[in-house]
Every structure is written in structure tokens, then in C-alpha cells.
Amino acid sequence: MRTNKRSVIRLLEQIAVYLELKGENHFKIAAYRRAASALEADGRDLSEISRFTDIPNIGKTTASVIEEFVETGRSTLLEQLKDEVPKGLVPLMQIQGLGARKISRLYRELGITDADSLRKACEEGKVERLKGFGKMTQSNILHALDQLSGKPAYTIGRLLPVLLLIEETLSGNRKIETYSRAGSIRRFEERIEELDYVISTFDPKSVAEDILQMNEVVEAVSIRSLKVTAKLKGEAGLRINFRIAKPDLYALTLILSTGPDAHLEKMQQIAGLHGERLTQSGVKILKTGELLRFPSEASFYHHYGLPYIPPEIRADGSEVETYKGTPFVQLDDIKGDLHMHTVWSDGKDSLEDMVNACRKRGYEYIAITDHSKYLKVAGGLSRERLIRQMNEIRRLNEKYPDILILSGIEMDILPDGTLDFDDDVLSGLDFVIASIHSGFGNSRAQIMKRLHSALFNPHVDMIAHPTGRLIGKRQGYDVDLDLLFQWAKETGTILELSGDPARLDLSAARAREAQAAGVKIAINTDAHATAELGNIAFGVGTARKGWIERKNVVNTYTKEQLLDFLKQKHQH
Ligand SMILES: [Zn+2]
Ligand SMILES: [Zn+2]
């Protein structure tokens, strides 16, 4: 039985969570948490540790739990706890703002044992009456429960390989004039429930038959006039719709297939005011029965005196009134990526490979931001290795004068609120990211204390993935975003919009609030390999969905503007 250190740390953390759920005493719980951190902070491999009790903060009891696990791969204590604590409580840990301690109270005080009983208690108003919970918490819980019960989280990132396969086939078909993604993928929704494409061709019948031949990707196809519906192979029956239109109906079909319903209802109302009606075969002038067609989506919106409404912001219909045509940030505007990892920590590619991949993308500048020492499991950099990396970056800057490589770090904000490096180390770096990767169960006050120490440190330039969420998997830590935005504005600290499709953090809605609060944003990839640098497109799509303008995105700045901006922050 080979046990790695990560799994031992996870075991200790799991035991702490179960003890907390069970309502055990505070000291007992803290002992396991402390042991987990102690083990994480100890640089050695499991095989190099002869006696666990020699490590500070690991006591006799904890050591025997670790030893049993290392020897047998099992833990009697954890198994016993799992028997005692209702299984249904564990998934509730994903609900933001709940945490083991509150869940334990729900269990002991209201007899809640799973998501269903929690929902019932919320609906009956029992949760808001508990001390320390309140109306807001109750409504947040209900909202989170809706998300938890959802279908598997298909993200654009996860579906991308399949999309590219489909698009390669469509691009290769000479009968197809043009085609576009539509529906939720075109709107950059976080969760994709169906895939939609619109295809323009003079020969719809024959193109529909060609789609039937794409049997590597799709199955169980049905054709109904101009709509081909299929299921995606191997993706739990995810539906994919191809709508086929003659070129003169393509733009309108694209609008109708992009949706969403509420946006189309609003447009239908506006058409009604003009004595017109949107139909599948054109915009019908009610008086005469004449059908209008449009050469482009823009000409459709202009017909009603509206600016072209970008698909990413089409939503509940209110955008039709509020959008005044402001251009949003575009992929071409991005001049560099300020968050990426190399083999110096947990990246897969060498520093030089990452640099060359970014040169190929035409970037003016990048920041190399490997993990800091606290993240042992990710090979975080010690001070000495960081200095060696800075020398390597200096050498590469000389070798490649066409790109500016900033020496950076993704530094952990530690659970106790201190930062992983001292100011004398940070002051030598060009770009400092601060991140939370641990202690997700912290109270809101503790999370804010940790963020405060990062934002108010003059060397910290950016907070990465500010909420810590993983779409469909983890809600993130309990952060007061309004206060975070206020501090970011006050200190000139950048907040990240991570294009990592598993994160998209800040989300579109939160990024929009950040922009409104006067916060500067950077759209990055957090790439751990050259192949992931392309995720910048997901970041930009999400930013557009959040109405983000180019001027508020620091990595659209020229090299000189960016360096100026960073210099100002450091003088704060
Ligand atoms: Zn990170
Ligand atoms: Zn990172």
C-alpha cells in the first residue's frame, strides 16, 4: 500500500470536518487541523519521516491515526465517524457560508440530515430563526440547493474538444456558406444544457444529410424540416441542435437560436409596437403580410433603432433598454497574460516553452507566477529557488527582446492571515499575485482578514480567482465581495477574472459589479501548460458577458501603460 502525503493531509482534514459535523469539542477538531498544516509545512516526503510525533503540532493520538493510515491505507476513526454522521450532511459543505460548524448546528438543532430536509426547513422558515443564520443566509442556502441539485455541470471548456471536432467537419463542408455557435454556448453561459449551431447553406437537405454522417460525434439523429437534433456521444445524452437556414434567413435564425427566451420576448414586444412579428420565416409586417429579412444581426437590431446587442449580454430583456452600444473588451485587445505556471512549480511546461508559446500568441508581456513555498504539494518556490528563477527570467528577457517577461509569484495568503513571503522578497518582484488556496471553511471575518492583509500590502498587485469557486464543484470561500471591491479600488489592487473554464472567477455578474465599483480587472488563464493559454477566450467571453470595457482591463494596456500602472500601486 503506497500512501502519499497529500492523501494523509486530506484524511486529517476530513476527520476534522466529520468531528465538526458531529459537534465534537473545539480542541479535538483543532488538533487534526493543526496536524494537517504541520504536515503540509514539513518539506519532507512521507518516506523520509520516521516519527510523526517529532513534528511540532502532531501529538500522540494524531500520529497513531496517521500511522494506521500509512500502514493499512485505512482509518478506523474516519470509518467510525462516517457511520455516526449522516451521509447527507457532507454534500452540504459545498454551500457557501455554511461550513461544518453551522451544518452541525442544523443537524443537532433542527434534525437536518440532507439536502431535502434542509430545503424543507428553509421553506418553513425554520433556518432563518436560528441564532446567527437570518433571512439572507436562508435565501442563499435555497439558491445554493438549486445549484447543487442541478444536472452535471457541462462547461464550455469541458465541451470544447467536441465543439472543435464538430466545427472542423462543418468548416470542411463546401456546401456550407457559414455557421455559428448559438444558444447558451454563444452566450457564454457557465453551464451548458444543450448545444446549438446555426448553418447557412443554399442546399439545406443535403447539408442535413451530411450532419447525419457525423457519427463519430453524434448519435440518434432526427430531422424535422430545417432542424437536425442529435445527441452527443459519450456525454450523457447532451442534446445538440443544428438549425439550417438559407443565407437570407441566416441572421434572423441566428438571433432566434441564440435566445434566450426572455430576450426574444422583449424583441417580440418591440416588434409588436412596430406592427411586426418575429417568425421563423422572417419578420412579418402584420398589415401587409410581407416578410422582412436581414443581412446581419446588426441590421435587425438597427431596424428597431437599437445598437447591435452582443450575444454574451442577451439575457432577461432588460439589456435591450440599458445597452447603449458601448464596446466591450475583445480577444484582440489582450496584450499579455499575467498568471501562469511552469515546471518551477506545478506547471507542465518549461519557462522557456511558456515564453515561446506566448510570443506565438503575439503577447507584448507576460508574468511568470509560480506558486510560493506554502503550497508544498504544488512544488511552491522557496526564496532561494525564486531568486534562481528570477535569474533565468533575466536571461530569457535578454534572449527574447520582443516580449517583456515579468518575474512574478502566486503567493499564498496563509490561513492565519499572514503572507507567504516577507516584503524584502516581494519588493524584488515585478508582479505579485496573492491567492487563497487553503482554509476554505474559514468564517467570513477570517477570510476578510486574510484578504485585507494582502490588499493592503503595497507589493501585492493582484488577487487571483477572488472567490475560490469551482463551477459545479465548490462554492468557494465566504467572501464579502462589496468590501473586497472597496478595498481593491482603494488600494489599486487588480482583481482577476480567471479564464480557467473550471473557475471563471470572478464570474460575469461579479466582474460587472467590480467594474461598477471602479475596480481594475485582469483577464488571465492561470495556464499550467502551453495548451491552456488558449483559455483566455473563455475569460474574455465571460468578461463580455459581464459588460467589461477594455479600459478597465489592465492586460489590454500597452507595456508602458502597464508598467506605469504597477509603479503607481507600489507607491501606495
Ligand atoms: Zn491559484
Ligand atoms: Zn495559479
From TrEMBL:
A Pfam family the protein falls into: HHH_8
GO MF term set: DNA binding; DNA-directed DNA polymerase activity; phosphoric ester hydrolase activity; zinc ion binding
SUPFAM superfamilies assigned: DNA polymerase beta, N-terminal domain-like, Nucleotidyltransferase, PHP domain-like
Domain Polymerase/histidinol phosphatase N-terminal: 336-415
Gene3D superfamilies from the UniProt entry: 5' to 3' exonuclease, C-terminal subdomain, Beta Polymerase, domain 2, DNA polymerase beta, N-terminal domain-like, DNA polymerase, thumb domain, Metal-dependent hydrolases
Residue intervals of the DNA-directed DNA polymerase X domain: 2-315
Key words, A-Z: Nucleotidyltransferase, Transferase
A GO cellular component annotation in the UniProt record: cytosol
Presence of keyword Nucleotidyltransferase: yes
Name used for this protein in its record: DNA-directed DNA polymerase
Species assigned in the record: Heyndrickxia coagulans
